């Protein structure tokens, strides 16, 4: 069994990609798996750390903020695309996979396009409730499209769609750690509630600013916070948070299972994988959708939960003033917490990676 898995750019693409690779290895222990990502992006670090080989393409995304540096980057895009197309064809011919899996991200488009042109079988994994332009374009030639939301025939040929849910990290799907272990790991007190703030694997500027501006308010509350800042917000956060504070700052949380176990309430972006994890964890959550995504799909993801009483939502532009007081109210409302836990737990989909590998097996055979 030889498989190429392509995509990345953020944890929302990388973690499901690794989960699929792990499930392939579980099904075929001798499988040969190669990742294809984008040079300089997060996957070039995280995929080797997970034990897999990865090849990088010089692909990049369109820069929407038109600074002089970004204009130059945009002018380079056609050349990067040509170079990526040439390189990925060589990778495919050399590796000769049985299946090519696309999970989204910059590298996914040139890899899947080249694969179909060279006659390789492909599978798409669409994570969001609103399909991205790349996957819509690639769907015509894919054998199967694995989705996590109902109603995706709006975007893809109905006969190719299989509902599998989104793959999540095994440690979170199994979640065999206790709250006490989580509290001990993060150095937290057992007698105070805990709020986990996660702006995605790369961090979220508006959420980091919300925390910086709200530190005085937070310190006045009998509440503890675990705050994942991402790379760009970490130095500013550590400089602002005083020693002995009840706010624990982390650039990136490796043991998210322990963070979820410790948390009473979660504040999170509304990326598809984050939501899939939160449904499995079953904790009360306040979602702050990112406004910087195609077709505002994070708001659509969030509303799928809000409409079922499984989450609360605060728009990004209002998070600085509304989110922390709303969380304080939620912490005081045990009945609301319980109903949200029950509602979000009903939306959990388990075993998604194995279901995707079932589809891979059908294609390959």
Write the layout of secondary structure elements.
Blueprint: E1 2-6, H1 11-27, E2 32-38, H2 43-49, E3 53-57, H3 68-95, E4 99-102, H4 108-117, E5 122-126, H5 133-138, E6 144-147, E7 161-163, H6 170-174, H7 179-186, E8 194-198, H8 205-213, H9 215-220, E9 224-228, H10 234-240, E10 247-250, H11 256-262, E11 265-268, H12 272-281, E12 285-287, H13 297-306, E13 312-313, H14 319-332, H15 334-345, H16 352-364
Helix pairs in contact: 1-16, 3-4, 7-11, 8-14
Describe the structure in your own words.
α8 packs across α14. The chain folds into two domains: 180 residues, 3-Layer(aba) Sandwich (Rossmann fold); 175 residues, 3-Layer(aba) Sandwich (Rossmann fold), CATH 3.40.50.2000. With 365 residues, it is an alpha/beta fold. The model has no long low-confidence stretch (mean pLDDT 92). It has 16 helices and 13 strands. The chain starts with a strand and ends with a helix. A seven-stranded parallel sheet has the order 3-2-1-4-5-6-7, sandwiched between helices. Helix content is 46%, strand content 15%.
Could you write a compact summary of the structure shown?
With 365 residues, the protein is an alpha/beta fold.
């Amino acid at each position: 069994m030889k498989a190429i898995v392509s995509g990345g750019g953020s944890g929302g693409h990388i973690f499901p990609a690794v989960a699929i690779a792990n499930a392939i290895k579980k099904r075929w222990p001798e499988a040969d798996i190669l990742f294809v990502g984008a040079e300089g992006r997060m996957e070039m670090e995280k995929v080797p750390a997970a034990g897999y080989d990865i090849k990088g393409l010089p692909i990049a995304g369109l820069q929407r903020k038109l600074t002089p540096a970004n204009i130059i980057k945009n002018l380079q895009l056609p050349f990067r695309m040509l170079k990526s197309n040439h390189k990925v064809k060589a990778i495919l011919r050399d590796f000769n996979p049985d299946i090519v899996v696309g999970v989204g991200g910059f590298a996914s488009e040139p890899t899947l396009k080249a694969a179909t042109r060279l006659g390789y079988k492909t599978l798409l994994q669409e994570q969001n409730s609103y399909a991205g332009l790349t996957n819509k374009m690639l769907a015509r030639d894919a054998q199967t499209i694995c989705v996590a939301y109902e109603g995706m025939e709006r975007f893809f040929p109905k006969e190719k769609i299989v509902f599998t849910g989104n793959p999540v990290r095994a440690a979170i799907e199994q979640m065999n750690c206790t709250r006490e272990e989580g509290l001990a790991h993060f150095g937290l007190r057992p007698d105070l509630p805990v709020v986990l703030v996660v702006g995605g694997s790369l961090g979220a500027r508006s959420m980091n600013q919300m925390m910086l501006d709200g530190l005085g308010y937070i310190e006045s509350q009998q509440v503890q916070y675990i705050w994942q800042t991402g790379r760009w917000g970490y130095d500013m956060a550590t400089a602002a948070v005083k020693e002995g504070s009840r706010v624990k700052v982390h650039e990136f949380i490796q043991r998210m299972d322990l963070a979820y176990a410790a948390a009473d309430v979660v504040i999170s972006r509304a990326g598809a994988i984050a939501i899939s994890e939160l449904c499995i964890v079953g904790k009360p959550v306040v979602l702050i959708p990112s406004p910087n995504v195609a077709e505002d799909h994070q708001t659509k993801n969030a509303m799928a939960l809000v409409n079922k009483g499984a989450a609360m939502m605060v728009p990004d532009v209002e998070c600085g003033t509304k989110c922390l007081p709303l969380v304080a109210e939620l912490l005081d409302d045990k009945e609301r917490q319980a109903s949200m836990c029950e509602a979000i737990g009903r939306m959990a989909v388990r075993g998604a990676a194995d279901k995707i590998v079932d589809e891979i097996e059908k294609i390959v055979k």
